[in-house]
Amino acid sequence: GFVPFLVSATAGTTVYGAFDPLLAVADICKKYKIWMHVDAAWGGGLLMSRKHKWKLSGVERANSVTWNPHKMMGVPLQCSALLVREEGLMQSCNQMHASYLFQQDKHYDLSYDTGDKALQCGRHVDVFKLWLMWRAKGTTGFEAHIDKCLELAEYLYNIIKNRAGYEMVFDGKPQHTNVCFWYVPPSLRVLDNNEEKMSRLSK
């Protein structure tokens, strides 16, 4: 009997590196007028790659997106972003109008003050780190970095998928850089695939 108001899709899950079908999720959210959030903290960097950005198709239809350039893109910790479609939303949700913090007699455009727009009020402006790194590496530099990481993940997957003593956690090529596998010691290789084997393997 509950009425959902938000769908949180993931672009690059923490363990498997999996991507939700964002276009299909966006269609459902549009149909039922539900807020669509995309957790692209890990996978958002793939937008910098012409080869891999298709995995985030539909993210442009989201109402909000989280993104951590300090993960896939290697920007120094911490560099996190919460992006919202509706202009002024963060300010209307978070502003406290604390006059002792945000004086109005500034010599610059007050819209640049971030304190009344963020949950943390006095947090650092993380985007400056991203901007500096972008100036240094350029878009092509980020793209080469990301493409190489995914190329190495595919290489690792191809090396171990049929190697004795290794079992992939799931069938199929990884969607991101996460290559999930078990190393099975010789003593367990002779056992049937059952609960006892998995229990011993987990230990």
TrEMBL record:
UniProt cofactor(s): pyridoxal 5'-phosphate
Keyword Lyase set for record: yes
Membrane topology of this protein: Peripheral membrane protein; Lipid-anchor
Keyword line: Catecholamine biosynthesis, Cell membrane, Cell projection, Cytoplasm, Cytoplasmic vesicle, Decarboxylase, Golgi apparatus, Lipoprotein, Lyase, Membrane, Neurotransmitter biosynthesis, Palmitate, Phosphoprotein, Pyridoxal phosphate, Synapse
A GO molecular function held by the record: pyridoxal phosphate binding
One GO term (biological process): gamma-aminobutyric acid biosynthetic process
Subunit field text: Homodimer.
Similarity comment: Belongs to the group II decarboxylase family.
Protein name per the record: Glutamate decarboxylase 2
